[in-house]
Specification:
The complex is a heterodimer of chains A (112) and B (117).
Chain A lengths: L3 E4 L2 E5 L4 E7 L7 E6 L6 E6 L5 E4 L2 E6 L4 E6 L8 E7 L8 E2 L3 E6 L1
Parallel strand pairs in A: 2-11
Antiparallel strand pairs in A: 1-3, 3-8, 4-5, 4-9, 6-7, 7-8, 9-10, 9-11
Chain B lengths: L3 E4 L2 E4 L5 E7 L6 E7 L5 E8 L5 E2 L8 E7 L2 E6 L8 E8 L9 E2 L3 E5 L1
Parallel strand pairs in B: 2-11
Antiparallel strand pairs in B: 1-3, 3-8, 4-5, 4-9, 5-6, 7-8, 9-10, 9-11
The chains are: A mainly beta (112), B mainly beta (117).
Chain lengths: 112, 117
């Protein structure tokens, strides 16, 4: 019930295309859903985050779509660039000192 | 803003040595800090959660006597791997948050690659 399931495991997209990564959760008490981007040999960096009171959040080329009834959320990267090639982790957490649950990660490769 | 510095970035040492890794929040006060371990091509595995001035909370299966965590101030937490062995070789990452550790963003350090010979 505490898992966050992330798919696909890996993704290859042409430059300029749209990258889509999906995540699903079970625990309806989660109230914070961040996405992190990690480059090889570096720590994850917060990319964008959403709370369940909104269905979509956009920051530049990155958009989170959130479907509360389906308990799913996704990351869309518009106009994907080779520099976006990294591993992306979705996550879910809640208040009260609860730990953050991370998805398994998606390795994105954007072909030039 | 929200910069977390982790040091050292890479350490190689002999089996049996103890290794200390520092995690500092440079421009904010970190109420809670987390320590993760990451294996190649895998997700982040939470090892422990530490709050300033109190004992760390370890995840199931993590040996607290092996991985000593000290959160001495609102800007510094340390992880000491005691009597390290080759199986402790891994990528260790810390993160910090200003909130209670729940629905607040975590800010990560750049990790420490530990290699035990």
């Amino acid at each position: 019930q505490q898992q966050v399931k992330q798919s696909p495991q890996s993704l290859i997209v042409q430059k300029g295309g749209i990258s889509i990564i999906n995540c699903a959760y079970e625990n309806t008490a989660f109230d914070y859903f961040p996405w992190y981007q990690q480059f090889p040999g570096k720590g994850p960096a917060l990319l964008i985050a959403i709370r369940p009171d909104v269905s979509e959040k956009k920051e530049g080329r990155f958009t989170i779509s959130f479907n509360k009834s389906a308990k799913q959320f996704s990351l869309h990267i518009m106009d994907s660039q080779p520099g976006d090639s990294a591993t992306y982790f979705c996550a879910a957490s809640m208040g009260g000192g609860f730990k953050t649950i991370f998805g398994a990660g998606t390795r994105l490769f954007v072909k030039a | 803003g929200a910069v977390v510095s982790q040091h050292p970035s890479w350490v190689i040492c002999k089996s049996g040595t103890s290794v200390k890794i520092e995690c500092r929040s440079l421009d904010f006060q970190a109420t809670t800090m987390f320590w993760y371990r990451q294996f190649p091509k895998q997700s982040l595995m939470l090892m422990a959660t530490s709050n300033e001035g109190s004992k760390a909370t370890y995840e199931q299966g993590v040996e607290k006597d092996k991985f000593l965590i000290n959160h001495a101030s609102l800007t510094l937490s340390t992880l000491t791997v005691t009597s390290a062995h080759p199986e402790d070789s891994s990528f260790y990452i810390c993160s910090a948050t200003t909130g209670g550790g729940g629905n607040q963003p975590q800010h990560f350090g750049d990790g420490t690659r530990l290699s035990i010979l």
